[in-house]
Amino acid sequence: MNQIRIGIFGYGNLGRGVECAAMHTDDISLRAVFTRRDPAAVKLINPDIPVVSSSEVAAWKDEIDVMIICGGSAKDLPTMTPQLAQMFCVVDSFDTHANIPEHFARVNDAAQQGKHLALISCGWDPGLFSLARILGECVLPQGSTYTFWGKGVSQGHSDAIRQIPGVADARQYTIPREEILEAARSSDRHEFTAQQMHTRECFVVLKPDADPDTVRNEIVTMPNYFAGYDTTVHFISQEEFDRDHRTFPHGGTVIRNGNTGADLENHATIEFSLNLDSNPEFTARVLVAYARAVYRMHNRGRNGCISVFDVAPADLSPSSPEELRAHLL
Amino acid sequence: MNQIRIGIFGYGNLGRGVECAAMHTDDISLRAVFTRRDPAAVKLINPDIPVVSSSEVAAWKDEIDVMIICGGSAKDLPTMTPQLAQMFCVVDSFDTHANIPEHFARVNDAAQQGKHLALISCGWDPGLFSLARILGECVLPQGSTYTFWGKGVSQGHSDAIRQIPGVADARQYTIPREEILEAARSSDRHEFTAQQMHTRECFVVLKPDADPDTVRNEIVTMPNYFAGYDTTVHFISQEEFDRDHRTFPHGGTVIRNGNTGADLENHATIEFSLNLDSNPEFTARVLVAYARAVYRMHNRGRNGCISVFDVAPADLSPSSPEELRAHLL
User: Fold this and answer.
1) pLDDT, tens digit, for every residue of B240-277?
2) Pairwise CA distance, residues A191 & B285, whole Å
3) Residues of B with CB below 8 A from A43's CB?
4) Among A64, A189, A201, A232, which residue's beta carbon has the most beta carbons within 10 A?
5) Are B5 and B63 a contacting pair, CB within 8 Å?
6) pTM to 2 decimals?
7) Of B168, B237, B240, which Cα lies nearest the Cα of B207?
8) B287 CB near a chain A CB, below 8 Å?
9) B296, A138 contact by CB (below 8 A)
């Protein structure tokens, strides 16, 4: 089988997930992991894969078909993706929705210059959830779209809690409200805010002598993150935290609720949902499937920046068009 | 707005659904309906749309951008789609899964000859459910896919009951078993047959003097359709039938159940479901969205036969790529 040679740029939870995905994908071969840390300090699952300093990445131009960039959206990707797109075909998971148009423009310029193809904002939201939203709006143009997140760990909210004085560790779960999920499916349509659609549950380990009431108050009143939400705070021991709250489950649901018929008298719902033991491992699986598409589309002459909206599903699959039509259509 | 001119070939429940969809789609303009019946006997929702004899369809070659073919898969589409694909870009809803490769080959030859683009097997299954299946397999290659149909009316099974002597009218609902839906989501994976996954509920109006026990026995033992299924038969009056069983609700669920992680130790499910008051109206909505994509792809030079697997989501939408990235990604 003709193998697609990938690189991983950045080795945190997501980068490790890409390594796992490559291990279980026959037509994908992981050639190297690039890091801004000391390469000797980065331990891969497979010790035979080279770990290379990010400063040497240019030397790998001809060894990597698609670079999967596993940096953060806030500080890393806005500069990292354009830089790498001049040298490689790339896939990133940029997820700051409001800044996607600006990121797209910068990556597009760089990729055009380098004659490479870059796919940004891949994963499950943005990513698979974006596909559910566009399909819903195209098939049911008269309707409403609802995106629910959870139940799952929000790393941004967990990090925010850890910034509070007196907090030793914290995990925040975003939980969709069952009654609003039901309402979003019903023919009696309403608009809902994110605060109405979700509750937040926090598990916090306090430092010695920290005051629980003060910490709780800091959390529930935190602007942008918790204010306006129905937030529950549980104080637990480090032992309980380590036992029950070390994994990264997540998921969510996109509902398109619309109408059909001459007078829009009939009701239809389209629902797409995910339930994931490991958010970073699943996100990595999506990145790897889209890396395959990027490789193929670039081989057909496509350059510049694209998103999941520009990829035909057949390009995601290792199977031939004939096999796909015979078995999956 | 630049409008795409469509035609409808065949005016039954699906053709009527396409007329409804076009009424509510700004960039789609319905130019004519073609029928094998006497055109004077076909009553559209909008009486200003011309109804034309199918024998005159060739005269409309330059008036129709995409013809939406609304014939039956058993007898109509195997000849109708290749014939029309020589003259028009076309979309059909061919749904005999086992015969898709053969249908594809014939339509591809005809469309290549005519330099047109044909998209076959569109709707929700095959169609949107096929997208859910291919996405599931590409993102979670280690896993199982389950397709459940219903709760909804199976017209094939309803027709089969109506062939039994003594039956005046009949409606058959296919119902997924809740406990198997739950099992398909669980990490403890099993294989299930269609008979295990679904029950069948029949509402039957008898002719005078028909024997209920004989009819019931004919139904539940009918090979291919009911034998092996948990089938319930209700005998009801024509009044009750006309009041409660005249519509075409349907829906279903595709579940991909797979694993992630270095040792596939984590579990993930992807679920896509539909809940539709009107099966033909919703199917028609899907056909119209894909007609838009066919028009655009043909304008970019694409000929031959394709399926939903070959269409990038952006081509389904009337919005610009910039709008899509800003609002739906």
Assistant:
1) 999 999 999 999 999 999 999 999 999 999 999 999 99
2) 24
3) none
4) A64
5) yes
6) 0.96
7) B168
8) no
9) no
